[in-house]
Design brief:
Elements (H helix, E strand, L loop, with lengths): L2 E9 L2 E12 L4 E5 L4 H16 L8 E7 L11 H11 L6 H4 L2 E3 L2 E2 L5 E2 L4 H10 L4 E5 L3 H4 L6 E5 L2 H8 L5 H10 L23 H13 L3 E5 L5 H6 L10 H13 L15 E2 L7 H5 L7 H4 L4 E4 L7 H5 L2 H6 L1 E5 L4 E5 L3 E6 L17 H8 L5 H4 L3 E5 L4 H4 L8 H19 L10 H7 L4 H14 L3 H17 L7 H9 L5
Parallel strand pairs: 3-4, 5-8, 8-9, 10-15, 10-16, 11-12, 12-15
Antiparallel strand pairs: 1-2, 2-4, 6-7, 13-14
Length: about 500
């Protein structure tokens, strides 16, 4: 008679329940796993056989068949080991209260000596258990910290097979197992803020660029920094996280889900509490940036954080064009013959580049590029891609007086306070964590009204700057953010003029 337990699998970042059916029957002793499993699932047969022997059980000399349902979807990962092991054990009569196991999603890779090793996607499985009315999840003890982020679902952390069997026999309880997991936790620094070693005050001058980044942080807008070598583009981008507010619990869970399913969590950092900063090299491929059928890309790993593309002019043209759709839609859809996966995109994108191949603006005497070379270079980051950058900032090399100026610039903490205040205004306005960049057309019409004088300014700007409808809406959103930083309920002329100042002049 087949015994069914439950686990889960992943399609992109989406999780679905997998029924693990285990059947023992008479016939030649053979062990088969069907249901479109990958190599790791196929190799679990040998891990399970050896584990049976080393924990003191005899592997049944019978025909063993395991079916992973739904059988028409390819599954991957070693986390099915534990559910298959328990299914065989129950079929041989060593587990009497099998109905208890059916109330949980079971995940865990087993070692040859009965230890239960960590797996990817524990927090995703916990969320799935809550959504599908399972009582809870059985996970490796190393994954307890990420799983416990989700409330309202029971989490049973186990370190080895014997502990799980003791739990099923009533010899130990959930509280004892959770207490042990906390004692094993080596990440006690998780609630301690690491002292920042970088600060906005490290960058001299560049007040316009700093103001633009403050606006970007407050409203979630994308930024394009273009300037001479050594003007501070990369320095400012790397310090951008220091002016962003701390992540709320909702964003912590969202980001941890992505890193968990990607296998990028560790014992030292079981929860992503600090905003990600992803800065891929310009040699990165298109799949590395936007993701593929089996992995998320850098733009998704920057979820709720910063996605920084330095030297954007050196990236492949096709690679940059692949970013246009996710930057606009807030998601990436990867389509294949039999399935499609969707990855979330929600970050602040900062791009930086020199204006010409030689590095300097054309009016600089150090620039020795021909007009043809400059046009060819700038084509890589012009047009539709540039249209998706909200703030365009030109940065020139500092003058001698600015270099020798010893007075300190404004610190990150001071800027961060204004950013937090502006975001609180937006939170009250939208009654959620929505930022100004995410306003839909209805919200735009409601919260970004401008008077007749400002309308005339915008009409002139449409002609002079050749604004598209998308860019027109972006300027209104940026004006709304500037007004929030100024503590004003309505957008005024000066807010609109400042927003227009961050557009590329034709």
């Amino acid at each position: 008679m087949a015994i069914s337990l439950f686990s889960c699998s992943y399609l992109g970042v989406d999780t679905y329940v997998v029924e693990v059916e285990v059947d023992l029957s008479r016939g030649l002793p053979i062990f088969n796993i069907v249901g479109m499993g990958d190599q790791a699932i196929s190799e679990s047969k040998e891990r399970i056989r050896s584990c049976f022997k080393n924990v003191g059980f005899e592997f049944p000399v019978r025909r063993v068949l395991v079916n992973l349902s739904p059988a028409n979807i390819r599954k991957k990962g070693s986390h099915f080991d534990l559910s298959i092991f328990l299914g065989i054990l129950a079929n041989t009569g060593h587990i009497s209260n099998i109905e208890v196991l059916k109330k949980y999603l079971i995940l865990g890779e087993i070692s040859l000596n009965g230890k239960i090793k960590s797996i990817n996607g524990a927090i995703n499985a916990t969320i799935l258990a809550k959504e599908t009315d399972f009582k809870g999840v059985i996970v490796p003890m190393e994954n307890y910290n990420e799983a416990k982020l989700i409330s309202g679902v029971e989490i049973i952390p186990v370190d080895e097979i014997s502990e799980l069997l003791d739990f099923l026999d009533g010899k130990t309880d959930v509280e004892t197992l959770c207490k042990k997991a906390l004692e094993m936790d080596t990440s006690r620094i998780e609630d301690k803020k690491l002292e920042e070693t970088i600060d906005f005050s490290d960058v001299k001058g560049q007040l316009i660029a700093k103001r633009a980044l403050e606006i970007a942080a407050a409203g979630g807008h994308n930024v394009f920094l273009i300037g001479d070598p050594g003007s501070g583009k990369s320095m400012l981008a790397k310090r951008f996280n220091t002016i962003l507010p701390d992540m709320p619990e909702e964003e912590i869970i969202e980001t941890t889900k992505i890193y968990s399913i990607s296998g990028m969590l560790s014992q030292k950092e079981p929860i992503i509490r600090k905003r990600p900063f992803r800065a891929p090299h310009y040699s990165a491929t298109q799949v590395a940036l936007v993701g593929g059928a089996n992995r998320v890309g850098e733009i998704t790993l920057a979820l709720n954080g910063v996605f920084f593309l330095d030297e954007i002019g050196e990236f492949e043209g096709k690679t940059l064009e692949a970013l246009r759709q996710p930057l606009e839609d807030g998601k990436i859809v990867i389509s294949r013959a039999n399935f499609s996966v969707t990855y979330p995109v929600k970050n602040i994108t900062i791009t930086a580049s020199n204006p010409t191949p030689s590095g300097y603006f054309p009016d600089n005497q150090l620039c020795n590029d021909s007009l043809k070379e400059i046009k060819r270079y700038q084509k890589k980051f012009s047009g539709p891609l540039l249209d998706r950058m909200d703030l365009y900032v030109e940065m020139h090399q500092l003058k001698k007086d600015e270099i020798f100026d010893e007075s300190l610039s404004e610190k990150s903490k001071d800027i961060q306070k204004r950013v937090i205040k502006a975001r609180e205004i937006q939170k009250q306005r939208f009654n959620s964590n929505t930022l100004n960049r995410d306003m839909n057309k209805k919200q735009l019409n409601k919260y970004c009204k401008i008077d007749e004088e400002s309308q005339e300014i915008m009409k002139a700007a449409i002609d002079n700057l050749r604004l598209s409808v998308r860019m027109f809406d972006k300027i209104l959103k940026i004006s709304r953010t500037i007004a929030d930083l100024d503590g004003q309920e309505h957008i005024k002329k000066e807010h609109l003029l400042e927003a227009l100042n961050y557009r590329k002049k034709q």
